[in-house]
Each structure stands twice: as C-alpha cells, then as structure tokens.
Sequence to fold (619 residues):
Amino acid sequence: MPAPSFLGAVRAHGETLFRVWAPQARAVEVVFEESQESPLQLQRDPEGYFTGATSARVSLYKYRVDGTGPWPDPCSRFQPQGVHGPSLIADPTAFKWSDSQWRGVRLPGQVIYELHIGTFTPEGTFDAAAEKLRYLRELGITLIEVMPVAECPGRWNWGYDGVQLFAPYHVYGDHEALKRFVDRAHAIGLAVILDVVYNHLGPDGNYLKCFSPHYFSTRHHTEWGEALNLDADFAQGTRDFVLGNVRYWISEFHLDGLRLDATQSIFDDSRPHILQEIAQTARAAAEPRSCVVISENEPQHAQQLLPVERGGYGLDAMWNDDFHHAAKVALTGTRDGYFSDYTGRAQEFVACVRRGFLYQGQCYPWQKKARGQPAPGLPPWSLVVFLQNHDQVGNTFVGDRVHDNAAPGRYRALMALTLLGPQTPMLFMGQEFAASARFMFFADHHEELAALVHKGRREFLSQFRAYADEATQLLVPAPHEEATFEGSKLDWDEVQHHAEALAFHRDLLQLRACDPVISHQDLAKLDAATLSEHAFVLRWFDDEHGDRLLVINLDQELPLVPPSEPLLAPPFGATWQLLWSSEDPHYGGHGVTLPVADSGHGDWRLPAQSAVLLVEGQG
Fold:
C-alpha cells in the first residue's frame, strides 16, 4: 500500500488510489478516458489534498477541478500521448527488480559519465542505451548521470523544459523502460543518477496552476520562468511536491542519487532549506542503500557541501566550473564571455588541485560581484571536474566539442590531469572516442514558442563577442529543427574509427582505478607546484607503494635548467621511471620521451604539450 503522502495515481491490491493537491478548489473529480466509468469524486482533507479510490479496471485519466479541465495529473507517472494527453495509472510494484544485492554508491572512487538518452544512440531510447552499458563499464565508468527525463513537449528536448516531473519522457520508451535501464546497470556494477530540475517548469504543458496558483512564487523569479514557491503561504504543498518527487525517483526507480540543476535558482528563505531536505529525503528513501546528491551551482556556493551542523546543506558534491573554464582557456585560447576571468595558466590548475574552487569570495569581474565561498575541509571527491558537459558543449556557436578545437597534445595533457587528479572526473557522452557529433541546443515546440526559444538562444549566445554580430546570429541552429537534433546524435562507428582516442581514455581510467596511490584521492599525500607559466607538477607521496609524479606541459618544449623545484627530486636512494605518457604513439602522440636524464638526477626537458606519469623505482 502506498504511503499516505503518495502523489499521483497508483494501482495496488486491486484498487486505484488518487491523490492531488488543490488547496483552493471546492471539488476535484477523476475523469476516465477510454472507459465507461463515471467520474470519481475525490474527498478533500484539511491540507488541501483530494483523495479517492476505485476498484474499476481503468488506465487513462485526467482531473476536473471545479468544473474546469480536464487536466493531466501534475504527478502523473506516465504520459503515453505527451504533455497534453491523459495520464496513465501505473502499478509501482509490478516491475520485477533483480538488484536486491545492490548497495548503492558513494562518491570516492567514482568516474561519472553524463549522457542524454535521446542522442546517446540512434534509437534514442532507454532500451537502446542499456545495450551500451557493458561498453561503459569496460571503459572504466562507474556512475552514469542521465540528463533530465521528465515529460516535456515535442519529439526532442534537452530535458530542462520538463512539466510532468514524475513521468519519464514517453519518447524514450514505455513506463517501465527507465526501470529496466537502472536494473541492467546495477547488474553489471554501474550506478545511475538522474538530473532533476526543481528551479522552474517548462512553458508548454505546465498544468500546475490549474490546480493551484500557489505552486509558483510571487517573490522570486528565474531566468527561465516562474520559480517554485518554497517559502511563502501554501509553500508546504510545493515542498511536498518536490520532496515527493525526490522520494519517487529514488525508491520506485532504484536510482542512486540526483544531480540538482541550477541550485542558485532554487529560492528558499525558510529553514530548513529545501536543498537540505532534498538530501535528507533522498538518503532516507534509498535506505539501506547509499546514494549521492550532486549540485550544479553557477556561483559555486561551496557551503552547500558542508554538513548541516557546520551551516551547510549536506550535499555530496558540486560541479567545478572554475576547473572547466580555466581548462577551456588553456585548450582554445578563448577568453570571450564568461571565460574572461580565467587565464588557463599553470597556477590555476595547481590551485584547483590544492583548493578545489578558484573563486572563494574574490571579485569576479565578469559579473561585477564576488564569486564563490570558502569551505575548508572538503574532500576532493566532492568536486566534479570535466573538460566537457552538456552546457559547455551546447553553449558554443554550433555545439562544437572542445577536442575538435584544441591541439591534440594539449587536450591529452589536460585530460590526464582530469582523470588522474584527486577530484571526481566526469566525461560527456562520446568524449572517450573523440566523437565528431556536435551537441547543439534542441527543443521541439509549437511554432510560436519555437520562434521565441530560437530568439532566446541567439540572445544567450550574444554574450560572446564572437557570436554577437548579425551575420553569425542568423546562423545559430534552430532548436526546433530536426536536423539540429539528429546532428547531435553519436556516431557509434567512430568507436572503431577513433581507436586511438578510446585507448587513451581507457588506459587513463584503468590507471586511476588500479594504481594504489592515485586511486586513494588523498589530498594529504598530494602536493603541486608550477614549473613555468604553462607547466606544473603533481606529486603523490607514499611510503608503502612509492611516490608518483605527474608532469604536465601545456606549451612548447621546456628545458628546466636548473631543475630547482623540490617536487622533481626523486626519493632518497631511488629514481624516477616512466609509467605512462600522453605522447604514446598508440594514442596518436609523437613518441615517448623521458623528461629527465639520469633517472631523475639530471636536467629536465619537458616535451611540448604533454603529460608524463613517473613512478618511484629502485636506485
């Protein structure tokens, strides 16, 4: 039997139960489609919830509120005909799970892979994506982050225009397709988390106001639409809606956690903050499994990651945009738009290794205000680092990937830092085989809204000088055109054609997982230093297994005479031996060159645009 606080409609023990929040309505009834059943009158409780039950065998329904409608259920579990169609009654106990031995996931040791179901495979379905899971596991991925799947309008969408937050997008498969995907992932040792959007709802198919205007705030606003009401009159109903959604994904779909989109636009002036309650609700719903809650927060308010007793919200991790922005400048030379406050120099990467975020309260000239917060004592795995993600690829003019615009050697060197460094690394789908497919912004809307979305996309890109002129603006891909969506799909033939890139990423991931020193992500045993404006070194100290030395040079060949940086010195009585090089010809490199003569005791000469990993050996 569902818990008293369930939302939506569920079938259990021969009955179908309904529950919907409409605090100012006088009457709510269920209207059944494709059925001769009479409408079911629901009963109102003091909190404004309408509930009822029927033993009739019904499957599709809508709600009529005070004689208006009928409308789809705002907590529908499935919309087989899209956002405007009837809602499907589902039995949450019908799916036969095979993951009873799965114990969930914690962040230490994880490697994240972000993917979009609609463009990950030619078919664009959960079942087709499930066929690629073993490939990902063999690559070295441990945790899949699925971009939002809540029901949204049209035939394709990034997913951030979701309007029925409980209903997996019907284009991706039937109402149990996501469960099959998660169950298959767990069977081969892969965790799955879901990207969820609690800052706004999309503009088309959003029926929440038909049930209550109090779902939305009159005090707060977001750049994408109305903010949810989480802190004013009647806010408890909206909070129940959000927390019920958290509980639903974790418990009914066995998901291993959530990635929270744009938390800077989740406004809540009350206490406890909704983000704290989201984390607590997710963990309670997962028990006895463990789960993770990851935040995207543009201003990088790192205090979200602190424990509640230290004034934080207790989230597990946050995306590190500072790392990406510094890397983008180093890889491409661009300092346009929001990249203007980064240099791409060695100092920034050393600071990221040591301190996590670069901005922890300093002035951020691009926004003309302070950026970030200090949060001492954060473990390194609580920061997620990447060279690509859906936003940063999609925010280019035509969705170009950074490996197509960077010198190959420089890309390999910074990917070595990403995958061997102490923070939690993330790859964006196809990155591991140097996918040539762009990832453009796509959203299929009706004609009037499509024109507005295209206009908004042009305005967003105009923050970059390179994309602001009139001629370039005219060439911005139209999000509603099928070619924009189809052109964003991965070409899986490239797995064979780009074998060098695949071998490069696979070998690095194997090193990260298997090396007894690097895999520990222990900042106490790690130090870093700059060697020049564009070269730097990381050193892991380990008495048991021997030290490790990662030397990265992002510029031209560099002689170090004299080699006065103490981190370069081999341990007493030992030598440096080459363990791995980004310039291995198997990766498309120019050949392996040991950067130091006489096993570490002579002069150093760093190969151009390269990374080498050295290990302590016998003297």
